[in-house]
C-alpha cells in the first residue's frame, strides 16, 4: 500500500437527545464541521463511507442512507458506500476511508457515522439494538447487551478482586471527563457513591455506568499525507499509524485478556504502527458499560492481567494520569449513538494530539502533548464472541 | 495500487422462492460453492465483505448480518464489513473485496451478496424496497421504482421511436436466456406477444417485464493474481480489469445517454481497463424492468444514441449475436434478490469467460470464447438521480 494517510479534519454534532433532528441534520453538522476543520473545499472530497446502524429500523431509512445524507449535505456524483458493523460501524467506515487513501485509489475521503436513537419509543430502540446479535440465537430472546456485560464483569470481579467501588471509580472518572467535553451527552460530574447508588440495571451495572440512548454524528476527512503536508505547512500532521479490524474468535464470557479479540486485534495494530502499548499516550475505549473499561486496560496491554484495578485506584487513567483513558468521557458520558461512536473516538484523539482538547487536554508530566493515541471500538456479538473489533492508532508526526 | 486482482471462484444459491431458507442458508450455499469453485481451503480467506439490503426490515437481522452469516458458514476471526448500496449492494461488496486485494491489504477475500424477500407479506417487502430512496422526499409517497422506470421508458419511446414490440423483444430474449440458466428464477421462454399481453403494471411496463421478488445469494472469491496463477497452473485467469462506483449526478428522467450516471461511470471503467465498448464481448446489465436494457445499450456505448432498437430488432444482443447482453436472463428472468444481484452478474461473466456457461455459452462467429465481459449494477435513487452505479470489467488473461 503506497500512501501514508493523515486525518485532515474532524467534526461532530454533539451527542444527546435532539427530538427535531433527523439523520440528515445530525450528519450535516458533523460533515461540514469536518470540512471546515480540514480547511479544504468540499469539492476535493472524492469518495465517502457512511456508517449507520439503526436508520432502517428506527427512522425507516435503509439501503441508501449515505446517499440521502450526502445529497442533503450538498454532494453529488462521488462514490458512496454504506457501511455497518454494529457499535463498531463508524470506526469501520473510517477504516474503509483509510484503505481508499492508503491504497492510492483516492486522495481525499470522507468518513461519517450517524445515529438517531431517540424516536419516542424506547422499547423499539432497544429491540433495534438487539439486532446486533444473531437474532435467531439470542437477539430476540432477552439476552440484551447489558446482561452480557454484567455476566462478564461479575466473572472479572470474582477472578481479579474487582470491587463495586472500582466499578464506580471508572464512571466517576469518565463523568468528570465528560463534564469538560462540549460534545458530551452528560456533563454532570458524578461521585462513585452517586454512581453506585443509581438504579440497578443488571447487577453489578447501575444506571450511571451504562451508556445511554443517543442522537449524534461524527465525521473525519482523511487524505494522502502529502496533501496534508502542503495544506498544513509546518504544522503537525495526524497520521493513521495503524488500522485493524477483526471479528470475534473468543467468547466474551470465557476469555482471559490475552485470549480476547481486543488483545489479538491490538497486537496487530501495535505491530502495524511499530509501537507497543507503553508508547500509547492516551486511549479512547469502548466502555459501553463503564466497568468494561477495566478489562480493556488489560486487553490493550496498558497493564498486566489483574492490574487494571491498580490503574483505576491510583488515578493513572485520569486526564492527569500517565495513561489517560476516555478523556472524552467515553461511551457512558459522552454518549453512544451507536453508528457515530467510533468516529467520535477518532475526533477526540485528533483533538488531543493537536493540543486542541481544551480543559480536558492530556499532557505528560513535563507538559508535552501526547504523540500516540489509540481508539478501540467494539461491535455486536455472535454466538458469544465480539462480532467486530476495530482498533486505530493515530500519531502526531 | 500494487496487485492485479483475479476472480478465483464464484458460487450461487439459485434465485427464486425458498420459503424455509433464511439469509444464513442462502448465503451458506453460495459461499461454499465459491470456495469449492476456487479450489482453496476456506482458511485461506482473510477478510469478507457482505452485502444485504433488507435483512433488518424483512427478517429482523440488522447490524451484524455478515458476522451471523459467516459464523454459520464456519468462519471465525476474520475482518468482516457489512456493505449496503440498495440494488448495487453486491457489486459494491465485490468492489470492496477488489480494493482489499488490489491495495495489498489482503491476498484472498470473499464477497457475498444475499437477500430474502419472500417473507409472506408482499406489502412489507415492497415497503422495504421503497427505502432505497430518500424516504422523506418520495420513498413513502407511492412513487415506487416501477413508476420511475415507466416514466423514463415512455420518454425514450417518444424521443427515439421505441415501440411496445421493442420492449417485448427484450423480455423475450432474456426469458429465453433465463430458460437456459439453472440458477434462474424463471425458466419459461416467453414470446413478445405473451410479454405484452401480461398484466399491465405501470404503462408501458407489463408483469413479465418486471423483475420479481426473490430469495437468493451469490459469492465471489478474489485474490492476488499471483496466487491465481499458482493455483490455476496454465489455465486462464479471470482478471478484474476495472472497478468503478459513482453516485448519481443526473436525473434518471431527464438525461440523454451521455448525461447518464451509467455513461460517466462506464467511461471511467473503460479507461481503467484500457478498452472501449467495442472490445466488450458480453454484458450483464441492470434491467430491473427489462425495457431499461435498451437505454443501457446506449449508456454503455454499445451503440450510438437512438440505435438501441436496431440492436434488439436485429438480434445482436442475443446469445448468438455479436454483443450478447444478459445471457443469464437478466434481472427479470434470472431474478433480482436485490442484495445478491451484483454478484450474480459477476458469476455469469466469469462462467462465460471461462467457457462454463453451458447452453447459454457466448462465442464469437469463429467459435472463440469471449475475452472481456462487463457488469453494470444500479442501486436506488435520491432526488431523481441514480444513487449508486457500479460497473466492473472482467477479462480472461
TrEMBL record, chains A, B:
Against InterPro entries, the record matches this protein to:
Thiolase, Thiolase-like, Thiolase_C_2, Thiolase_N
Q: What domain of life does the UniProt record list for this protein's source? A: Bacteria
User: Which one of the record's GO molecular function terms can you name?
Assistant: acyltransferase activity, transferring groups other than amino-acyl groups
Name the Gene3D superfamilies for this protein.
3.40.47.10
Q: Residue limits of the Thiolase N-terminal domain?
A: 5-225
Q: Which residues form the Thiolase C-terminal domain?
A: 259-384
Do you know which PANTHER family this protein is assigned to?
ACETYL-COA C-ACETYLTRANSFERASE (PTHR42870), NON-SPECIFIC LIPID-TRANSFER PROTEIN-LIKE 2 (PTHR42870:SF1)
Output this protein's name: Thiolase family protein
- The scientific name of the source species is Peribacillus glennii
